[in-house]
Every structure is written in C-alpha cells, then in structure tokens.
Amino acid sequence: MATVFYERDANPAALKGKTIAILGYGSQGHAQAQNLRDSGYNVIVGLDPARASAKQARADGFTVVSPAEAAKRGDWIQILTPDETQHQLYEAAIRPHLTSGKILGVSHGFSIHFKTIVPPAGVDVVMIAPKSPGHLLRRVYSEGRGVPSLLAIQQDASGRAHEYALSYAHGIGSTRAGVLETTFKEETESDLFGEQAVLCGGLTSLIKKGFETLVEAGYQPEVAYFECLHEMKLIVDLIYEGGLGRMRYSISNTAEYGDLTRGEKVVGDETRAAMKEILARIQDGSFAREWVEENRQGGRKFAALREKEKQHPIEEVGANLRAMMSWLPQEKKKSTDAGDPPAAKVVNA
What we know:
single chain; alpha/beta
C-alpha cells in the first residue's frame, strides 16, 4: 500500500522566505503558481516575455522575468513545460543558475528518469505531480479543497528534500486530499504506460475500431459515433465516481451481461501481450529515445500522424454532431506554445 501524507504531515513554513520560480504558465503552470501564491508563498514566473502566456501571468499579478532570470532568482525552480522542450530549457536557462542548495522540481519524471536532464549533485531534485489537469487543480483549491498528488525524491542533497516537497504540495492544496509517495521510475513508467496502452492509445484505437466495424456493416456513421464515442463519457463518468461496480450497477442487466461475457473477447490475452511489450519498451528506454529522436528530427513523423488522424471519418461525423449540441463548450485548437503545455498528466504531460 502507498504511503499517504496529509495536512498534519506538512510544514508550510519550510518554503516561506524562499522564492519559487515557475517556468511555464500553461495548464499546470498557471494553477500551481496561483495556488502557491494564495497559500502565502513567494512566486515568480519565468517566460519569454513575447509569449501570450506572459501577458496572462502579468495580468494575474505575477512578476514575469525570462526563464534564465527566474532560475537565477529562484530557490525552488519548477519546470512545467512539455517533456520535449525541457532539455533545451534546462541547458539554456536553468543549468547555469542551478547552484548548490537549490531545489529542482518537476511534475512529471520523464526528463529526470530518462536523463535528458542531469542535475548537479548539490541540489535537491523532487517531484510533486498533481493527478488532475491544472484548471481542476486551481478550481478545487479555490473551493477550499485539493486534488491528490504524487511525491517523489530523486536527490536529497539538503537532507530536507521530503520536507520541502510536502511544503510545496501543501501550497498547491494537495495535502488537503492526500499526497502519495512514489519514485521517479514508478511515476514515469506507469504514466507513459497508462497513456499509451489504456487512457489515450488504447481508448482511441478501441473507439475507432468500434466505429469502423459498425460503419463497414452498413450502420449509419452518426449512429456509430453515438454508440462508440459519445456515450463513452457516460460510462467513464460512472467508473470515475465509483469504480467498475458503480458502472455495472447503473447500466441495464443486458449491458452488464454483455460486458461480462464479451469484453474479454475484444480486450483479452493478445491485448495483454501487446501491453507487456509496450511496457517493456518504456522500461528499457526505447520509447524515450524514440521520442527524443523524433523531436531532434523536427517532429515530421509526429506531424504526419496527427494529420492522418484528423482525416479519420469519425472526426468529420463528430464535428457535425457536436455542432448540434449547444451545451458543449466551443472547440479549441490545442496549443503548441512550448511555454504553454496542455493538460497532459492524466492526468500529464
């Protein structure tokens, strides 16, 4: 069982008097910065001043300086930019100012675990990873509650890294809900596996193949969309609220019987074998090397894959149907601003 820490375990004063430099003001950056400030911590934001997010951070009342200046001023340097940009940011702006006694923080362990960032020996290296998108982290904090976080210590130069990390978790509100202790290895590898095999890769493939099966059998694409994609949220919400049991209690007996007798035929031992292969490629660093190399090559394969997926018939059908649903928020394009990462921790990136 995981070790869980709460309010009583944290020492909020541990970081009082220190300057926390938040690098990045996207999904996690804006939320963590505002929560920390509202908890009484001294926060500055490090951004290229030309970015739209820099204007927003200033409007939110923060001192905004260049990433290098933020790293120079900061006692705690929190990197909240996308994984693929962190090496360059570290080398250009952080490493020259990461002197002994400072704390390097992240909210996802990719760069540290796979050594695209190698911090010096004299600094603490910690992770506080909220298990929610940033907008939810901020909203729940503002309501007087918190979302859980993961805590990991990679390097404890000061002998107080754990105390500092819990203080940070307290500042963003996570000790109100619970902070689970883990390691950089466990967080990084399990997170990548969840994204690739279940939450993103596995789910989107399942949806598309279900849609394609119905359409190829002669059913209307709109009906296939509703059955294989639209209603997914109804099921996932039930599972989120109370696990698989809550979902099965809420659906019809017919649906539950179909679940219990047919699910393993679709996602069975062959799928499990593929999942094991995916996990092995994460554990041995193959995926990390592939992703790093893809970005070194300019992301051409990634861009081509994105474009191909946009052309899938389910996207056109879905866009037309969603236009009929006035209750849905207006669709937005995903930001590609390196200083404005999307909510990637399914919660991240």
